[in-house]
Design goal:
By secondary structure, this protein is of the alpha/beta class. It is built from nine helices and twelve strands. The protein has one domain: Divalent-metal-dependent TIM barrel enzymes (TIM Barrel). The chain is globular.
């Protein structure tokens, strides 16, 4: 396979990617129920699970039956060090296999020089961080030849910055890079609940015109902290925020994330039907 960069993805107000899909993150525990749900047309796959060539047969089977969108957790787009070439090559192979027209990742840091942090670390909202992210996004989009969609993450605390707020930082990164947005509505809601902020006000500061992908999930309470555990049904407050987003734009793929507690797969999968109803009516 040609490993040469494919050329820059130009920033602009409109990026033509396939949207309008509704589905879930691929989990083998849910596939029996998913296969019987005609309203599920899209699956999100974690790219790292398909880096091994032996797993590609399954990936091809999924892509033959569903619109498959790739998502990652290890790009570390906010790290001072540049994205690892071998990691980008593996991502590109996954994207090529399914004919992806964009790639999504978290706006965070997962690696320091020589160290894998093991979690999604928040970035200091500063001009210097914007510069680092912009450089790395440019590298990734040039290597993949695809737009990158950046996801807002949950943060255990607000990192103090003299430069800008968290929402301003996210918006400036998107403006500077021309990247798309993966809007995780549950992450936004979780941060607001834990930090005493208004979710509707926070949502109003997000660059919704760049949203092409949406995540919904359900968390749990641990003491007085709401944890984004992807283990419970989507809460009513998050459904209400989805209504707000859908009143502004419907130009996105929507994915229900559920990563543990599979005791009731029918209820988990049926949330996709509810998402369709919220967005399309």
């Amino acid at each position: 396979m040609n490993s040469e960069p494919r050329g820059a993805v130009e920033p602009g107000p409109v990026v033509n990617v396939r949207t309008g899909g509704f589905g879930l993150g691929y989990r083998s525990e849910l596939m029996d129920e998913i296969s019987n749900a005609a309203y599920v047309d899209t699956l999100e796959v974690l790219s790292e699970q398909f880096f091994d060539s032996k797993s590609r047969e399954l990936l091809r089977e999924l892509a033959a039956a569903y619109h498959v969108v790739p998502h990652g957790t290890g790009l570390s787009i906010g790290s001072f060090t540049r994205p690892r070439p071998e990691y980008l090559q593996s991502i590109r192979q996954v994207c090529d296999e399914i004919g992806a027209d964009y790639y999504s990742e978290h706006l965070c840091m997962t690696r320091a020089p020589g160290v894998n942090m093991g979690h999604l670390g928040p970035l200091l909202p500063s001009r210097a961080s914007v510069d680092i992210v912009a450089r790395n996004v440019d590298i990734v989009q040039n290597e993949l030849g695809l737009p990158l969609a950046l996801e807002n993450i949950t943060q255990p605390l607000i990192l103090p910055s003299p430069d800008m707020s968290e929402a301003e930082f996210f918006s400036e990164v998107i403006d500077r890079t021309g990247a798309l947005v993966l809007l995780d509505i549950t992450n936004l809601y979780t941060n607001c609940v834990n930090q005493g902020r208004d979710p509707d006000a926070e949502l109003s500061h997000m660059p919704l015109d760049r949203v092409r992908h949406v995540h919904l999930a359900g968390g749990r309470w641990r003491d007085d902290v709401l944890v984004d555990s992807h283990s419970h049904p989507v809460p009513d407050a998050v459904w209400e925020l989805l209504k707000t987003v859908s009143s502004i734009t419907r130009n996105f793929n929507l994915i229900i994330e559920h990563d543990q507690n599979y005791a009731d797969p029918a209820t988990i999968v049926s949330q996709v039907a509810r998402a369709r109803e919220v967005v399309l009516t």
